[in-house]
TrEMBL record:
Record keywords: Membrane, Transmembrane, Transmembrane helix
Lineage: Bacteria, Pseudomonadati, Pseudomonadota, Alphaproteobacteria, Hyphomicrobiales
Organism for this UniProt entry: Mesorhizobium prunaredense
Name the UniProt record assigns to this protein: Major facilitator superfamily MFS_1
Molecular-function GO terms, alphabetical: transmembrane transporter activity
TM annotation in the entry: 15-35, 47-67, 79-97, 103-121, 142-159, 165-187, 212-234, 246-266, 278-297, 303-324, 336-358, 364-385
InterPro entries: MFS (IPR011701), MFS_dom (IPR020846), MFS_trans_sf (IPR036259), MFS_Transporter (IPR051788)
Membrane topology: Multi-pass membrane protein
Key word Membrane present: yes
Length: 398
């Protein structure tokens, strides 16, 4: 009976963490159509907006750095509760900021809450996987993309009809309600002995000597730079350079996330059938083609379609690269994973600010064309992800 109760709790925990992935994606997606509003509401340049986005990334990286330490002390369930409930108010704080200095503080807090949620929910998903003895990570990221699709699709229309503050308030209320219910059913890790925990902590901060893990991290970086560029700049690109209104501009990231969600829900099956390296190669080519067409598109609807095609490719690239990082020979999975995730997330959190600096003196079109070139480089390096090929004994159950 105890085993049955533990399994039922794990199943509830599986859907609870999926709901938090959904809420995190929803908050992130809802931010995308707010970006053009920040530009006009605060009467700032693209350069200044790039600095604000950089602060969002700085907050996220800072929280991610400390989040691992907090999880080792308090467990992913408790840390996810804190960051989740606080993070649901992040967008509203940004929307309320009346000037650039307060907006800067708000962006740092918003980024920190989203980044902390991200690390904690991924760690909790791993705990659920071990308890269930089966993978749930790909579909969990699918729920994140589904939330991003909903946040992006509804955001532009809501802002245009009801204003940015009303939109932020509704997003906050929905995210808080989902997270408040979900955190009640999260499961906790089995506490390891103290000595073992200290040993794990030491291994976590060890610097790997194998250069292959850094090359895999570089591939993750190039992939997630492209993802971050669509999140932060696609709406502004459609509005300023292709002449569409805010409601249609918000559909760029929505289409990108919606297609990514579908592909992530079926990604495990695709990868098991064709192999990690082949899936990565084809995915990188598809993503590169989509990004290239988006950068050269003469109309907003072609650009939206191209961003969706790009999402079709990018969807399973990051999970494969993370898996490759966590299965490097001669190092613990945590050490390899920490290198690849840190390098990868710097692409989605920090690099988009550099795009804003470049766009201030150029335009977004050549930037998206250049990003397609980075995805071609990932295609050429795809063989380095061979450690992500399926291994039946890679994740033993607790």
């Amino acid at each position: 009976m105890d085993t049955l109760n533990r399994m039922q709790a794990a199943i509830r925990g599986r859907w609870a963490v999926a709901a938090i992935f959904l809420a995190n994606g929803f908050l992130t997606g809802a931010w995308a159509p707010q970006i053009p509003v920040v530009l006009t509401r605060l009467d700032i340049s693209k350069f200044t907006l790039g600095l604000l986005i950089l602060l969002f990334g700085a907050g996220a990286v800072t929280a991610m750095t400390w989040c691992g330490h907090l999880i080792s002390r308090h467990g992913s369930r408790n840390v996810l509760r804190w960051f989740g409930l606080i993070g649901s108010f992040g967008l509203l704080v940004v929307a309320l900021a009346p000037n650039v200095p307060l907006a800067a503080i708000a962006m740092f807090i918003f980024g920190g809450s989203i980044g902390g949620m991200d690390v904690a929910m991924n760690a909790n998903a791993v705990t659920v996987e071990r308890r269930l003895s089966r993978a749930i990570m790909s579909s969990s990221h699918g729920f994140w993309s589904l939330g991003g699709f909903a946040g992006g699709a509804l955001g532009g229309l809501a802002i245009q009809n009801y204003g940015h503050l009303a939109h932020a308030a509704v997003v906050t209320a929905l995210a808080f309600a989902v997270i408040a219910v979900a955190v009640r059913y999260l499961i906790a890790e089995n506490k390891p002995p103290q000595a073992s925990s200290e040993a794990i902590g030491h291994r976590k901060f060890a610097l790997p000597g194998n250069p292959l893990v850094y090359l895999v991290g570089l591939m993750a970086l190039m992939t997630m730079i492209s993802e971050g560029a669509v999140l932060d700049w696609a709406a502004l690109y459609l509005q300023q350079e292709l002449g569409t209104d805010l409601a249609v501009a918000g559909l760029a990231y929505a289409a990108f996330s919606g297609v990514m969600a579908v592909m992530r829900f079926v990604g495990d099956g695709v990868r098991n059938r064709f192999g990690a390296v082949m899936t990565l190669r084809v995915s990188a080519l598809v993503a590169a083609a989509g990004m290239l067409v988006a950068g050269l598109a003469p109309s907003p609807w072609l650009a939206i379609s191209a961003f969706a095609f790009c999402g079709f490719g990018i969807a399973n690239m990051v999970p494969i690269l993370f898996s490759a990082g966590g299965n490097q020979e001669g190092m613990s999975s945590g050490t390899g994973m920490s290198v690849v995730t840190t390098m990868g997330y710097s692409g989605i959190l920090v690099a988009p600010s550099a795009i804003g600096f470049i766009a201030e003196h150029s335009s977004f079109s050549p930037i998206f064309v250049a990003l397609s070139g980075l995805l071609v480089v990932v295609f050429l390096m795809a063989g380095l992800a061979h450690r992500a090929e399926f291994a039946p004994d890679a994740a033993p159950a607790e």
